Amino acid sequence: MRARLGAGRTSIEVTGHEEHERGGRVCAAVSAITQTALLGLDQVAAQHPDLVSVEITQEST
To answer: Which pTM was predicted?
Structure first.
């Protein structure tokens, strides 16, 4: 996971966590935590659209 800050923006990138634990448990945990954080940020943006905006993108591999 990598977070970058700059020019009033924050970027979070999650890569390389696939199959690090047998059965994909780490992958599932990282995905669940990341998605929960993004959903929370999306709710904050919905309540304060003049202060916060959220753009969620997923790159296909």
So the answer is: 0.62
**Residue 13, helix vs strand vs coil:** strand
Here the tokens at position 60 are 């296909």
pLDDT along the chain (61 residues), means of 10: 68 68 68 87 89 78 58
d(CA 12, CA 22): 25
**Count of alpha carbons within 13 angstroms of residue 34, beta-carbon side:** 18
47 CA to centre of own chain: 19
Taking the C-alpha atoms of residue 22 and residue 27, their distance in angstroms, rounded to an integer, is 10
- Rounded (10°) CA dihedral 33, 38, 56, 17: -10
